[in-house]
Amino acid sequence: DTAVSQTPKYLVTQMGNDKSIKCEQNLGHDTMYWYKQDSKKFLKIMFSYNNKELIINETVPNRFSPKSPDKAHLNLHINSLELGDSAVYFCASSQGGTEQQYFGPGTRLTVT
Amino acid sequence: GNSVTQMEGPVTLSEEAFLTINCTYTATGYPSLFWYVQYPGEGLQLLLKATKADDKGSNKGFEATYRKETTSFHLEKGSVQVSDSAVYFCALSNAGNNRKLIWGLGTSLAVNP
User: Fold this and answer.
1) Which of A17, A32, B26, B66 is deepest in the core (most CB within 10 A)?
2) CA–CA separation, B108 and B68 (whole Å)
3) Which residue from B32, B43, B89 is facing A98, i.e. has the nearest CB?
């Protein structure tokens, strides 16, 4: 049973397109996150939701919009994709304030 | 503010060599400290953690001790294996920080047979 799953695993698309990445966790956690990892492995927090409420919204272009339909799901929609959006996007979840985060396998987005 | 500084990689070792990856932090109060590992093509997973000063986290032969006096949480392993090749991230979590982990830049480790 996969704890944190993401779809799709790979996404190749052209500049200007709109795409979505989906994330689901079956751990019963109350907090979910989106991270962006660049080619140098630098990990940057983008968003976090706690009980469906947005609690972290880092400096991210407003082309990126997260949506949390329920505690177990956090989706990421990206409008007007740009070359610089190419990266691996990770979803993660946690329970409580300082507990460990559980990561999904990542979605490798390539914008051509 | 809170920050984490890790030694830069890549680190290349031969099998059975001793590993140290340095991590120092800046934080107010009493953060929890973590080491995460990312194997090739996978997401990050928790390797070990420590929640208070002088705690030692350990897992899979790796150890790290929470040193408040030196604000450090160095990762060590006595004898690395090829299967330890991965990227290692040091991170801290501070109460009242909106559940945000503060991440180091990651250190890539390659172990050669």
Assistant:
1) A32
2) 25
3) B32
Gyration radius (Cα) of chain B, Å: 14
- CB of A89 within 8 A of CB of A21? yes
Please give the full DSSP string across B48-62, using - where no structure is assigned: EEE-STT-EEEETTE
* pLDDT, mean over chain B: 93
The C-alpha atoms of residue B50 and residue B74 are separated, in whole angstroms, by: 12
Residues of A with CB under 8 A from a CB of B: 4, 31, 40-43, 45, 48, 50, 55-56, 90, 92, 94, 97-98, 100-106
Q: Dump pLDDT digits (tens) for B71-111.
A: 999 999 999 999 999 999 999 987 666 668 899 999 999 99
Helix, strand, or coil (residue B78): coil
Q: Which amino acid is at B9?
A: G
The 10s digit of each residue's pLDDT in B57-73 is: 999 999 999 999 999 99
Q: B67: which DSSP letter?
A: B
Q: Which amino acid is at A16?
A: G
